[in-house]
Amino acid sequence: MEVVQDSAQLVNWFRSSAPYINAHRHKTFVLMLGGEALETDNFQHIINDIALLNSLGVKLVLVHGVRPQIQKQLDQHGHKSAFKNDIRITDEKSLVLIKQAVGAVQIELQARLSMGLANSPMQGASIRTVVSNVVTAQPIGIKDGVDYCHAGKVRRIDVEGLKIHLDMGAIPVISPLGYSVTGEVFNLLAEEVATQVAIGLQADKLIGFCSKTGVLDESGKLISELLPEQAQQHVDVMAKRDQEASGTLRFLRAAIAACKAGVTRSHLISYYQEGALLKELFTRDGSGTQIVKESSERIRTATIDDIGGLLELIEPLEKQGVLVKRSRELLENEIHHFQIVELDGMVIGCAALYPFKDEKMGELACLVSHPKYRSSGRADNLVLHVERKARELGLDAIFVLTTQSIHWFRERGFNFADISDLPSARKELYNLKRNSKVLLRKIR
Ligand SMILES: CC(C)(COP(=O)(O)OP(=O)(O)OC[C@H]1O[C@@H](n2cnc3c(N)ncnc32)[C@H](O)[C@@H]1OP(=O)(O)O)[C@@H](O)C(=O)NCCC(=O)NCCS
Asked: 20 to 30 A Cα–Cα from 235, which one of 17, 250, 312, 388?
């Protein structure tokens, strides 16, 4: 019985992942894997998941850090190096040891990505990796009288070279060492390398790993989405608290810079949590924090000030009989049930959620997309948003009564249901004359 349940769950999970698999195919993701991640028990799982993404046709670039490994190497040789503004001042001796640490990490990564043991997730993966000189560096030089020696910054990325490797289906593995035109080696910030690679490639995503599940609020709760300005506030607070060495801080800075330069979505996930990468990419709720570029369009709960805009949107459809008539008074009373899509101050979409808490069901009603803005996935986004709200309210299913958009809902996984399936309060209000179809979708 258990096995049947498990396999049913697997089939459901696999099917629900299909839209994400299609969406991610041929997309370019830059993964920023800090050296700390390599030291965890979960590291092999991360490698397995990277291999899986590669098999699903995602173009991946792996930028890795080496901080703890470098520190270990320096400690073992009794060599100390100072930090200034979270940058290691890299003298000759440090550089020799850093090269050793980077070499060891690169070899370890390549070895792991080359695995193909039978009965393991890597069986048949056959991944090609490429280590190359795509990062050109220059010295930081002397700042405030401090000579950073071999600590450097990114001068340019050989984007064409990277694209050739990606088009071959290979995973470029990039270390935080860059080479100058004069033939010298420079120690760089891995986050800066990842950011510049993502910007150069105009990657679809920059993904980083940290010790928490993502960015947490003051009460320790995961924040699932941040706009760059909100991310900046977290950076400012962390910097004030002297948390410069935090990987989260460094990644947030990287994500903000990437976002400003056209990489519209970055993700910060845990390197401890098994499957965090897959959960983030293949489930609706994700596992970590997304940093997304602000658009002037947003979905939000309607307020009394939106009634004019809402009426403009729904009245033509009421006149056509597509929607049931709602008076201004009714809208005023029910306004808190409405979610709207606002674009440049205009209401261009709406949907209402009426919860029936006893039955753990919610009615999705009055889903409208402005005729000028249709067929752009906005209604889909609204339904997803309403679903999220419904889950927050502890509901298990949403239903809709429709006369003209039956197929729209059917295509989105709503199934025919009966009037008797409706919550009793809603059953009583069912208008037999309208003869609407009842469609229902489980949301858990
Ligand atoms: C249903 C509705 C919200 C969809 O809005 P939208 O922004 O076009 O939706 P999306 O962009 O997410 O989806 C577009 C797809 O749905 C299809 N579609 C749009 N309206 C449809 C309908 N009534 N029936 C079936 N399919 C429909 C489009 O042809 C398009 O398909 P395509 O991608 O193959 O070209 C919009 O048509 C609408 O406002 N209808 C009037 C109000 C209504 O009937 N609401 C539902 C009852 S509450």
From this structure: 388
